Amino acid sequence: ENLSRIGCDVTVAYKFSPRRSSLVKNESTVRLYPCPFLPFKLKAIFILNKIDRLFWKTFFKFLKHRHKYDQIVVTHPLLAGYVDGLDLPIIYDCHDDNSEFYANGRIKNDIDREHEKLMNIASLNIFSSEHLHSKYCGDKKSIVIRNGHSCDLARLEFIRSSSPMKSGVGYNLFYFGTVSEWFDNNLILKIVNDFQDVYITIIGPCDSTQIKHSRIKYIGPMNHKELMDYSSEADAFIMPFLVNELILGVDPVKLYEYLSFSAAVFSVYYPELDHFKPLVKFYETHEEAISLIRDDRLDRSIHHTEFNAREKFLIESSWISRAKDFKKSLLL
After folding, report:
1. Which pLDDT score, from 0 to 100, does residue 163 have?
2. Rounded Cα distance, 116 and 112, in Å
3. Residue 107: how many CA atoms within 13 Å on its side-chain side?
4. Phi and psi at residue 219, in whole multiples of 5°?
């Protein structure tokens, strides 16, 4: 969307999901082509995979003829087969350690194989984190362009000029994002058990066990504006991840968004998050997380110097800033 805003003519063809209950309505301003590609699990069936690729490769050849593309950006290894043979430079935009989403088996092996193949044929490999870059780049042409945010910094200016203290009873701890097997349920339970006045709100799609507790509330997906308005009630935000090989390569969008509020931000520590220091308060053990929350409950003020640091960091980390870096990389 921001590449479009800075003068690029952008078309997005994306893998359409029939599971609409876990998604919000897409209101993008760019040209969109939702494509019902074959589910990854069915790619193991040879004839279905062949038919699926033939159909969509033909469709993308039509799009290439119609829109006169200069380059194609591929964002997942298993999508590369739909655009090979188009005789266009391919850029591999690797945002996640994709095979780590799956247990050992056919899909994981297929993703690893296609990932390596895509890196070799790409004219440029872009990674969203230093961890992914150091793990995969080798001697191939590659750069790091981190994730970003689209927060309204006018809101940050408004809350800086008003009191950062929240009113009401209790201490409201928020998380927004996907809840999956990497979510630290044990820490969340420990927090509500150790503090009788802490209320935890979890916003976003959940595909793992939900904790049953009177002070833990789960809310489904929200559109972005509604999410940001609703989250203004938070006294603090937390990113309670279990650190595994998948998480080690993640530069979390939510941490950028958390920092646009007048609230403390707590997160589990792993090396990729060093660029968030000292704006985010890190923990490595449950006891350290409890200590951070205890201290913040006693003093919830955010000083103007921290507001200034947050604002500077967020200006440099906006999606429009990332898009400018991306556009420069396309011209190299």
Report:
1. 43
2. 6
3. 12
4. -125, 140
Closest CA to 178 of 264, 247, 281: 247
Question: 105, 96, 104, 110: which is closest to 43 by C-alpha?
Answer: 110
Alpha-carbon distances, residue 156 vs 50, 148, 185, 311 (angstroms): 51, 16, 31, 7
> Which residues, listed in sequence order, are joined to residue 174 by a DSSP beta bridge?
201, 237
Residue 43 confidence (pLDDT): 81
Unique residue bearing structure tokens 């205890």: 294
Cα 247 from Cα 242, distance rounded (Å): 8
Q: CA–CA separation, 234 vs 218, rounded Å?
A: 14
Cα–Cα distance, 224 to 28 (Å, whole number): 12
Helices (H), ranges, the chain: 2-5, 46-67, 106-121, 130-136, 153-161, 185-194, 224-230, 245-248, 253-258, 286-298, 304-316, 319-331
Q: Averaged over 216-221, what is the pLDDT?
A: 94
The whole-model pTM stands at 0.89
* DSSP codes joined into one string, 151-194: --HHHHHHHHHS--PPPSSSEEEEEES-B-TTB-HHHHHHHHHH
